[in-house]
């Protein structure tokens, strides 16, 4: 039985939904935060069916400070203040840098980086005020460490690089409070976001079979298992770290000679 309340942003689909359901299966109380209220409600209902002690769906635009504050207030009122938070909501917009609209750049950074800041700040404020430890996991990306072979990835890479730097800094600041802050680094994972922009899923799967050492896309449930470990007391001595879950992609040299 998981004693904590777990809050997940971007819980309506993909990795966020998988983490919500994995926590639910362990008996946690869960809060499904998503800008898509229909998807959040469906995820919360699925969490209850999966075994959650309680579940609530909360509308949340992570790029908006008032929305994040209101979402945490609503979640706390329904299922209790979260002791475990997965700051996961994200978007991807790809274009050649010299053609990249400022509005699109700002949108990616607002969701992926400012959204992580606002989510973590609200979680940390509550944890510090409560005087208890806790665990936060943020979603980074291999794009924070290496160039994206598909190109046009500058905004997304910059936002995720910021997340990784943020995690290291926050981990040091809040270690004295017993609050751990880590990042998960999913590789190419079989979610709807992977095909954003109209990419053919079969083409992507074929490319993954060639490029990823394990020869396939990751499953959201596999990333969720890594996140749940970081959120749990099993990772009680882990903070400021990145858990790479990418099928070996970052370990692979581009040179095959």
Describe the structure.
This protein has one domain (5-189, 222-244): NAD(P)-binding Rossmann-like Domain (Rossmann fold, 3-Layer(aba) Sandwich), CATH 3.40.50.720. The longest helix has 29 residues, at 102-130. Helix 4 links the parallel strand 4 (84-87) and strand 5. Strands 3-2-1-4-5-6-7 form a 7-stranded parallel β-sheet, with helices on both faces. It has 257 residues and is α/β, with parallel strands linked by helices. The mean pLDDT is 93. It has helices spanning 14-25, 37-50, 65-79, 102-130, 154-174, 201-211, 220-231, and strands spanning 5-9, 29-34, 54-59, 84-87, 134-139, 179-186, 242-245. It is globular. Belongs to the short-chain dehydrogenases/reductases (SDR) family.
